[in-house]
Amino acid sequence: MTLMTEPKKTAALGDEYSIVKARHPGRWLSAAVILFLGLLLARSVVTNPNFGWETVGMYIRDVSIVRGIGITLELTAICMLIGIVLGVVLAVMRISANPVVRTAAFAYVNFFRGTPVLVQLLFWYNLAALYPSITFGIPGVDLDANAIITPLTAAILGLGLNQAAYMSEIVRAGILSVEHGQSEAAGALGINRLQTMRRIILPQAMRVIIPPTGNETIGMLKTTALVSVISVPELLYSAQVIYARNFETIPLLMVASIWYIVVTSILSVGQFYLERHYAKGGQRSLPPTPWQQLKRFVRVHDPLTGKGARK
């Protein structure tokens, strides 16, 4: 005689399951400690009268400060454009089969990376002491160096040519990251080297080139503060002119710092989404946006989307 057992109840096909995350009290404890220390620091900064927050509020939107921000952004854009364009040319020269071209590019990069950018700025600013007249080797051409090399021109030449040396190494690394078989296949199809570089190699190298280029752009924005030594009225120089009159040094430096942080934060957001765009096709999943990271941080249950779970 066989005993009939009642069949076990199985979960309905449409039942929803969830995965409960493991608890990590150490993470919450460390976050609480860091938050507490951050609040203490913020309270100290806000309540310290030596920062002169009233003066900061008075000059944060001053006309000369806003004009200085515009010149800072203009210098950043122009110098990065020069650096990127010339950097691509130098990178191609560095990997050229011609030893003379390759050596010339190496000498350029070695010179501009081997000398401080502040020294280069001072050399360009005092170029008239070396060459009072500029002829470019063309008969009949005689230009006054003092009239051509203005403080703004010296700043653009100094920062742009220096940036080209660093960008050339970034672009060269991106080009070398692409498999050599790509150029060999293009050559087998009868595509010349210039078209291969422009249409095949560089688009694939962008995933490697974009992240450090974004960092270099943010670095260039802050490096423009060096041109204050040659009297270019950018953000820091504008703040220096004001505190030379009213002797409010710390508040005006705080004004400049706040604007630098604001602009670099905006550039950082743009860099993140640009990197995310060029990451398509190269990663299984795109890096999460800040909003997606916040939602993942506060979420306790992860929905199970496998078989038997409701999507």
Automatic annotation (TrEMBL):
Positions of transmembrane segments: 28-46, 66-93, 105-125, 145-162, 250-274
- Give UniProt keywords alphabetically: Amino-acid transport, Cell membrane, Membrane, Transmembrane, Transmembrane helix, Transport
The protein's topology relative to the membrane is:
Multi-pass membrane protein
All copies of domain ABC transmembrane type-1, residue ranges? 69-271
Q: Pfam families from the entry?
A: BPD_transp_1
Q: Where in the cell is it found?
A: Cell membrane
Q: What is its main location?
A: membrane
The record's similarity note reads: Belongs to the binding-protein-dependent transport system permease family.
Protein name, as recorded: Polar amino acid transport system permease protein
